[in-house]
Amino acid sequence: MTGQGDVLGLIPFARTLGLSVVRNDPTEVQVRLDWDSDLCTGGGVLHGGVIMAAADTAGGICAFRNIPPDAAGTIIVESKTNFLSAVTRGRIDAIAKPIHLGRTLIVIESDVRDDQQRLVAWVIQSQLVLAQ
Hints:
Layout: H1 4-9, H2 12-17, E1 20-25, E2 28-34, H3 48-65, E3 71-83, E4 91-101, E5 105-114, E6 119-131
């Protein structure tokens, strides 16, 4: 299993945002991000792109943890995000779980929650499995 630091070493953008990996398991990946005013839009609201990036990172790690043994990796081919609540303080956790594990396509569902456990966003993404 790839360690938390090793995983983020493969995703420099995640480190730039300040993401940390809380759980790294094939059945569930959890990524955390603390609210920061530098990551906000007007009114101190966490930028939607930042929320999407957290979910995308968790989903990408989850997909990678579930690739077939003969695969080289994955690449995202589709992502859909529903925003449900604004985040103006605290932190978010993106929790990704596989919902389809195919040989050529992996589908991941991610819930993004704030530190009050309110659902902030729901994301579903499809990852294409890359051949060696």
